[in-house]
Amino acid sequence: MGTALGCSKVFNPCPDGARLHGRAPPEGTLQWCAKPDGKKHGRWVEWHPDGKLELEGPNKIKTEGSYVDGKMEGHWVSYFVTGVKQFEGEYRSGLKQGVWTLYYEEGQKNREEVHSAGSQEVKWTAWRSDGQKWAEGTLLAQRAQGLYSEWHSNGVLAAQGHYAHGEKAGDWKYWGLDGKPSVDAQGDFSRD
Predict the structure, then answer these.
(1) Whole-Å CA distances, 148 to 49, 72, 127, 143, 171
(2) Residues 158-173: pLDDT tens digits?
(3) Which of 43, 82, 38, 42 lies closest to 62, judged by CA?
């Protein structure tokens, strides 16, 4: 009886020219690929700490995505500790691009953001946990800008107006749950 020794190849999730850094569970919670100059290049993954896990296996991942020459690139996704998706979207050359979707812990869509390449403008829509549209607007350099609309939980328009540089501007209109105009803000918007 003899033993055959063969060549074993070590799996490296990193692209050519990059080396794996950090440690995967159970030894660590962060692992990434980087070039010799330190620029992240290739897969990047973070896991939830073992002490706070409710699920086992691949659902332990907290956030994963890729880098190209030090910039986030491609599809990125993050998960709640329960394994339910928290958010996902695309990066191009380190900037958010296209539709980003955020979720409630129960899995329903919470918010969608549309990011345009080379622009600081973000159009967004938010939903309540029951799936009913709650509000929509635009951010410019992370400040409210332009038309904003908000709906009551029954789907009736609750508030509408414009923002300029993060501040309410001009006339704002408000409606009650019955759809009749109101002088005062009502519903969720009244907390502003």
Answers:
(1) 39, 31, 14, 12, 12
(2) 999 999 999 999 999 9
(3) 82
